[in-house]
What does this fold into?
Amino acid sequence: MKNKLHQLFAIIGLAVTALVFSAPANAQLRIETSGVGATQIPIAIAGFSDENLAPQQVTAIIKADLARSGFFKIIDTGDVISESAQVNTGDWKARGADALVIGSVQRLADGRFDVRYRLLDTVKSAQLSALAMAAAPQYTRVTAHKIADDIYEKLIGGRGAFATRIAYIIKAGKEYRLEVADSDGEGTQVALRSNEPIISPAWSPDGTKVAYVSFEAKKPVVYVQNLVTKQRIVVANYKGSNSAPSWSPDGTKLAIALARDGLTQVYVVNSDGGGLRRLTNTNGIDTEPQFSADGQNIYFTSDRSGGPQIYKMSANGGDAQRVTFGGSYNISPRISPDGKALAYISQRGGRFQLYVLDLTNGQEQRLSDTVKDESPSFSPNGKYIMYATESGRRGSLAVVSVDGRVKQRLTMQAGDIREPTWGPFMK
Amino acid sequence: MLNIRNFALIVASAILLAACSSPVKLDDKAVPVVDSGATGADTRSVNTVDTGSDPLNNPTGILSKRSIYFDFDSYTIKDEFKSVVEAHAQYLNSHKNRKIIIQGNTDDRGGREYNLALGQKRAEAVRKALVLLGVSDTQVEAVSLGKEKPKALGSDEASYAENRRSDIVYQ
It folds into this structure.
């Protein structure tokens, strides 16, 4: 019943509200949003004075971030208002805005851009926040995302995740690329290029490295790549297949799946490749290990009861308890940052769809309407889940809020996009 | 047998070449001695490789069959492929210097990592059968390509069946 209601809501949101935003023309990724949050805060974002000096228009990025979140209704305005201007908040209240954003951009002598902003509550006629950030030109987008994060935090509560990044795999022709982009799909950068498949990227908790499985040695091998220095280390290249890396919350270890002793089993290894230890011991498949948020447990996929189901064991190994019971095929467990929810892919009636299980009460909810879903990944604030799906026989990425109401779709003009991993909060 | 003869010839040539190169002092004034007779290190000799002598290279022989197909959700070698596995076991047992990789594959339905584990199951089934037939562990590695390198690209049963496969790849 709850599922149905949510679904209905999403469809109504799609049909009536139809918030559709497309990224700027130079973007490689295109984002479409449908649906709205339970409540939407009407907010006016005035143009920042002199913002045309910066490489990107700061307020356009802020508006797109807030609209995409589903929690805001953007009140149109052609006004340009500096943060130092005197504002009659009553006028903005009359225009329907509960909050107003004003600001300025200034080019500093050293080439950086100084972006200042104020967030005003038009109802209480009070200032809610003010920030000043100076950053190099190439970080203008990050500055804009940080302002959007601040607005989100002050008006919705909890951290915004607009300034975080995502990593994913693109297959274009015969080439496979590991790419990194802002959470809105903009500012893409290539971290790895290969003529062989790359799968299962996993972002390190400090945001500087990505672990992944590359087939460049004609078999699956686990690597950790430092995104900044380009240094790559082989974490696991044992006989047989090496796969499914996932970081411990403290970043010192990786849980992995190895087939060195026959079938695929779960192991743990230090992030430098040392100290390998086997954690599971079955004569079936144990794979896709994921550390719990507190690092004490490991969730994983196992076929010990027949079809694949999700299990949980101590991070030191030992007995496992079954976690999923609905359906006969449940794979790809991912734990929410607060440890209270489990996202996974379930196959029911021939459809592979994203589900979320509330670990506190055992309630299960389907979050997607698509049919070939894979690889879920929580946003670091736990509000959204990104996953891979298919549209028009090509891979695309989708984002859904954990309550199922807000949905986004990211597509590429050319190439299959898959295997998303949402990066952590960064300083 | 032929291999040993070839090997002996290579060693002999190497020794002769080494003997020629090192101790002789270079003297550009000296008249070079051209020796094309029977005693020289004959770098112009040509020896024949006969592919027919290695059954692995026979395009119509059973060893030319390198793929083992599996039923849906199955990881056991069907009767029709047992002779193929046996033939490769026999070859590997009589050619202890040869090594193979067995690559397991799956159709494209379901998750990448779980399919990787399923492909491993198919590769492992073939590896186990070979080892049971006496093939040394050191000659065989079972790996999975999961659903990453599909041979058939369609979304129909025929394509799925084509991709439920283990391939034997000689190194």
Summary: The longest helix of chain B spans residues 112-132. Helices of chain B lie at 2-21, 82-94, 112-132, 157-163. Residues 14-26 of chain B have pLDDT under 50 and may be disordered.
